[in-house]
Amino acid sequence: MADTIGVEDELVFLPLGGCDEIGMNLNAYGYGPAHDRRWIIADLGVTFGSLETPGVDLICADPEYLIGEQIDAIFLTHAHEDHIGAVGLLYPRLQTNAPIYATPFTAELVRSKMVERGVDPSWLKPVALGGTVTAGPFEVTYVTLTHSIPEPNALAIKTPLGTILHTGDWKIDPDPQIGETTDVEGLTALGDEGVLAMVCDSTNVFEEGESGSEESVKQGLIDLISEQKQAVAVTTFASNVAR
Fold first, then answer.
1. Cβ of 163: how many Cβ atoms within 10 Å?
2. What is the CATH number of the domain that holds 65?
3. Which range of residues forms the domain containing residue 114?
4. Cβ(113)–Cβ(124) under 8 Å?
5. What is d(CA 215, CA 202) in angstroms, rounded to the nearest whole number?
6. Residue 210: predicted pLDDT
7. Which of 28, 129, 157, 172 could make an S-S bridge to 164, C-beta 3.0–4.6 Å?
8. Pairing verdict, β 132-135 and 138-144
9. Element spanning 58, H or E
10. Can you give the residue ranges of the Metallo-beta-lactamase domain (predicted)?
């Protein structure tokens, strides 16, 4: 990561999808002068068709602005479709050879998506939990969080102009059924060092109360099912491995 700051250097945030909406997350961070900017991308996701889009199964963000730009790396925060579902679709359109970084669980799911779309999976680079990657002027550290899928991460993006905390999806769950707990020490250290800005998941932020732990869901299901005398069918989100 370069430490020198040029007179024309800027740090910019480009939200192409997933901001002020649910789904098709595609956010980019750029550093440098406007005529020679370097980029990293956080997530390549899809959203699903609705009654307003009959006949359409998947929708992804338009990456046109980034085509032909200097993309140093793509970082995936976790394995939900609204964050990884467009990798096989958009990676070829970006016309880049940028490596794609993800923690091991996410990487395996993305690998199959790339193969399915005929995209070379050798560009996919697994990163250890808590790992750090240098990509051009950016130094990106994966910070372990909790969510409804294994290995959710925030991205601590360090640049010569300051650090951005890009949270991805999260909730504070002290007792997740699978995986690690939130890296509170890592987040505290970031706060102590100073954060220039936080780009944060805000789903249901205006709902009062607390998000329950997966442990409370588990016990609730046990209590309900144990009262039944006949067979019980239970449906759940396919990616919620713990449930």
1. 17
2. 3.60.15.10
3. 10-210
4. no
5. 23
6. 81
7. 157
8. antiparallel
9. strand 58-60
10. 25-221
CA–CA gap between residue 32 and residue 14 (Å, rounded): 14
What is the model's pLDDT at position 63?
A: 96
Q: How many domains does the chain have?
A: 1
220 within domain boundaries: no
What SS3 state is found at 56? coil
Give, for 11, the enclosing helix (H) or strand (E).
Answer: strand 10-17
164 phi and psi angles, rounded to 5 deg: -105, 135
What stretches in the chain show pLDDT beneath 70?
1-3
194-207 residue pLDDT tens: 999 999 998 888 88
Q: What is the pLDDT of residue 53?
A: 87
Amino acid residing at 27: N
Q: Which tokens is 223 given?
A: 């209590």
Q: Position of tokens 């209590």? A: 223
Spatial neighbors of 23 by CB under 8 A, at least 6 apart, are 17, 45, 46, 47, 48, 59, 82
Distance CA(183)–CA(211), nearest Å, equals 18
Q: What is the pLDDT of residue 1?
A: 60
Is 122:149 a contact under the CB 8 Å cutoff? no
